[in-house]
Amino acid sequence: MPCSAADGAPGTVDKDDAVDTPSSPGRIQRQLRGFRFLVDGLATGAAACLLLLVSLACVVLVLPLPLLPRAARAARSLTALERGRIARHLGVRIPQPPPVPATARAVLTDPAVRRDAAFLLLHAVVGTLSGVVAVSSPIGAVQNVVLALLWPFIPGAETTLATPVQSWPQAGFALLLAAGYAALGPLVVPPLSRWYPRVGASLLAPPRTLLVQRLAEVTATRSAALDAHATELRRIERDLHDGIQNRMVAVVVHLGMAERALRRDPAAALPIVQTAHAAADQALADLRAVVRSIYPPVLADRGLAQAVSGLAAHSAVPCAVQTGALPLLPAAVQAAAYAAVAEGLTNVARHSGARRADVRLEVTGGRLVVEVSDDGAGGARETGGSGVSGIRRRVEALDGAVHLHSPPGGPTVLRVTIPVEG
């Protein structure tokens, strides 16, 4: 949520502005920061114009409508860039919106996508014009001064307003024009650099109703995380108590029997020792399985990309893995993503009847995206006790989301998104 600086009323004066003189270093530094902010917006403003035209073409022409989600994701990347730029300029934090929906119909009705479009429309017009004003102020001043001084040596010289400079009176007009450009920067750029980022922040930040809803979701996921943690502890305790502890008791019992046999009949002790040895081996295997269920060692040894490639290599259905550049991810995120891929490939092998599967891993917009898709019969459903439900609880505890799209006839797509940035 943006701080109050993003929601401040127009015309509010900062304390520093009230005590700084026009020539103080702090005020000059802020003006230079504002100038740079507006100039940097020129490139993203042009990109916003292009994205809006592409999105409009997708909607109007209908045929390229399936490309609309891609255009929306590109727009989300651009707004994420602007969100970060505005947040750094204002010194606030602007929350990231939820992921872009996967279908064109959902994109058209998604409130976050509409906010992106509203901001890009504003940025394409106001952001571009503000950048032009910031750039033209120093350039226009310098250009007109040079023309006023050197017009006898520049045939056909014209000012930035396309007026000729062929006499000293006309050169004087060029100097006045240069003074106007020079005054344009200090008079216009500072107010623009204060007003425009605040308006942009208000558009990019979620509405208060969504923030309240988000708070309720965070509270629910926190409760779910605590429940999942308690369930996991009970499972580990049950595995240790019912499995490993029983086997270790059996080892102790057999060793006691072997000790007594050694005193009475040493030859009869060997089979008992062998039985104890087998029980100890099985207990060790069970212990390793419990450890792997807590955090797969392959993640620590090889990383998420290689671990998922290993899952795909051992899949019963031929599987291709597409992995983008993955940064260093938190252990909990890696474990949840690995579990999601494992569950997805298990469901593909057991229920889908698919001939091939695909796994995609990438980080985009501050989120890890995991997709497991297949060309099977579709019709997959999430029930209360299914593996997908367990993955959902685990992912939502990390503030992530799970989407299962499986119409009858296929294809089936399991999409998991997990935040990887604060």
UniProtKB/TrEMBL annotation:
Residues 1-25 are annotated as: Disordered. Residues 332-422 form the Histidine kinase/HSP90-like ATPase domain. Coiled coil: none annotated. The chain crosses the membrane at residues 42-68, 118-151. It comes from the Bacteria. The keyword Kinase applies. Pfam families: HATPase_c, HisKA_3, Sensor. GO terms for molecular function: ATP binding; phosphorelay sensor kinase activity; protein dimerization activity. Keywords: ATP-binding, Kinase, Membrane, Nucleotide-binding, Phosphoprotein, Transferase, Transmembrane, Transmembrane helix, Two-component regulatory system. GO terms for cellular component: membrane. PANTHER family: NITRATE/NITRITE SENSOR PROTEIN NARX-RELATED (PTHR24421), NITRATE_NITRITE SENSOR PROTEIN NARQ (PTHR24421:SF10). This is histidine kinase. It comes from Kineococcus radiotolerans (strain ATCC BAA-149 / DSM 14245 / SRS30216).
